[in-house]
Amino acid sequence: MSVRQRSSNDVTRQKAEALQQYQDSDGHFSLVRNFRLADMVTIMNGVCGSLSVFSSAHYLINNDIDYLWFALAFPLAGLVFDFLDGKVARWRKSSSMLGQELDSLADLISFGVAPALLAFVVGLRTYLDTVILTAFICCGLARLARFNATVALVPKDAAGKAKYFEGLPIPSSLSLVGVLAYWTKQGWIAGQQGIPLGTCTLWGKPGGRGELHVVSIVFGLWAAAMVSKTLRVPKI
Predict the structure, then answer these.
(1) Mean pLDDT of the residues in the chain
(2) At residue 9, does pLDDT exceed 70?
(3) 19-32: per-residue pLDDT in tens?
(4) Where is it located (predicted)?
């Protein structure tokens, strides 16, 4: 049996043992009772992502710039909780399968859905823009699923931590949020000066479904980098 097969079998056995606690737990709110402190911190990451989404929606409704700034700030707050949940888990010396799944789902909201909606809010609203932003979210989803499924196969250091990420980690999307925040400060958003570099028309008439904001290509490239298997980002 190869090392990879043994590692896969060990992971399967550990998952089966971890699932036993949920099978043995019964009654109302049994899921909540199985939450650990680190899990609650992880959920706060999801809360921040959700608040960013709703703040973006408020901005679209009433055009109050304060809501846009809130929407830009909440993903950063989510990153703080994303960093703290691991610290808390190590401090409490407790981790769980539930926590791993919660972490990925919260990351998808805060660093996938929220940034894509922010890009739409500031002006990437053509048909092709929304196609690319949808692909951005789906690539983030695929990247997180692959991480959960293959993390046991990634080489580890002496401390047992993965040496690198396969593909660009989804929290890196905060770099794009930072760019959107700068554009907002400069007034380079829809309703003001407009998105930098403007649009290009790939087919049909200007303003039609073939129109695309040039900067949307950056989101497309970011999406591709997240699902890349050959791109290896050292884990700090």
Answers:
(1) 85
(2) no
(3) 555 555 555 555 55
(4) Endoplasmic reticulum membrane
SS3 for the chain is CCHHHHHHHHHHHHHHHHHHHHHHCCCCCHHHHCCCHHHHHHHHHHHHHHHHHHHHHHHHHHCCHHHHHHHHHHHHHHHHHHHHHHHHHHHHCCCCHHHHHHHHHHHHHHHHHHHHHHHHHHCCCCHHHHHHHHHHHHHHHHHHHHHHHHHHHCCECCCCCECEEECCCHHHHHHHHHHHHHHHHHCCCCCCCCCCCCEEECCCCCCCCCEEECCHHHHHHHHHHHHCCCCEEECC
Q: How far apart are CA 173 and CA 221, in angstroms?
A: 12
Alpha-carbon span 221 to 11, nearest angstrom = 33
Residue for token pair 């993965």? 162
Share of the chain above pLDDT 90, in %: 58
Of 96, 173, 119, the closest CA to residue 141 belongs to 173
Per-residue pLDDT at 93: 67
> Which carries the bigger pLDDT value, residue 114 or residue 18?
114
pLDDT digits (tens, 9 = 90+) for 78-130: 999 999 887 876 776 666 667 778 899 999 999 999 999 999 999 999 999 99
- Cross-strand pairs, 200: 212
Q: What is the spatial distance between Cα 51 and Cα 40, in angstroms, rounded to a whole number?
A: 16
Tokens of 81: 């909780």
The burial of 96, by beta-carbon neighbours within 10 Å (0-12 exposed, 13-18 middle, 19 or more buried), is given as middle
